[in-house]
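tl;dr need the bound structure. longer version: we got a ligand (adenosine-5'-triphosphate) that a collaborator sent over and nobodys looked at where it sits. i said id run it. heres the input, straight from their email, havent touched it
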Amino acid sequence: MYAIEATGLGLRYGNRPALVDCDLQLPAGRVLGVVGPNGAGKSTLLGLMSGLLRPTVGSITIFGKPPGTTAEQLADVGFVAQNTPLYADLTVAEHLRLGAKLNPRWDQKLVDEYVGRLNTHLKHKAGQLSGGQRARLALLLAVAKRPKLLIFDEPVATLDPLVRREFLRSLMESVVELELTVVLSSHLVSDLERICDYITVLANGRVQLAGPVDDLVASHHRLIGTHDDFTSLPDGTEVILSEHTGRQNTVVVRSDKPLPYPTGQVSGIEFEDLVLAYMLRAADASVPGPTPPSR
Ligand SMILES: Nc1ncnc2c1ncn2[C@@H]1O[C@H](COP(=O)(O)OP(=O)(O)OP(=O)(O)O)[C@@H](O)[C@H]1O
């Protein structure tokens, strides 16, 4: 059974589609990064996973059950919305007491162990905390409810690079120690590369690319040469992006087979460039990009 399985998932706000025909399969214990430009549908997808939103079409299950339908299912999912929402007038201690009251699986032992890492006083109000302290408190509240799936919408967007690194490190520690499945959205592709083993690139409300990071990186290549070098590509090669500078032609292609070009003309592609290639293709296209088969 997958931790998350979505088939033909879609959601419209009125007449306006925000997410179209989304297929997704994420095994348990994995970390999925959801990336895409503003308005791509990331928050919509995460809202559907958490059960805050209901699909207009298609289906989604979390550990085999529709999200947000039973108390047990709600306890399975920890969701931290954009901007790590906390109660500004409540202290850190009050947040933790509230969490203990509201969550049947609350892990006080874990809280006692982790609370020192918040780097703040328990009497401080959430409104007085720095972005990094808020993010760490939101993470602690989310993991202490002992969910099986942890969902973060843009958890690090407002943090400086050092705090971001520290926050992501804490997150990864929790993932390993508590055997969590995690989904997080971000514009910061380099952060996602550090911690994700699965990726979904969204643009125009559609999945442009999805699957295990290592497989996707291995099946994409960069070709560099003149325009004439790549007029006919081997069967099964899909052109993702083609760019020209002067006489030089740079082409990003997808192919599961080795390509018959000399070293120097063909090379691997960095994760960040791969994601950007799909985002650029979707931005350039007058029609929405394809929804590739999920793995
Ligand atoms: N409550 C809403 N009512 C109407 N349209 C909405 C609503 N929420 C989102 N949308 C629209 O749905 C589309 C997808 O929005 P969504 O918030 O999922 O994108 P996103 O990728 O999370 O964007 P961002 O990176 O800016 O947070 C956008 O066109 C947005 O304007």
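gonna send this back to them w/ a short note. The chain has two domains: 4-213, 217-284.
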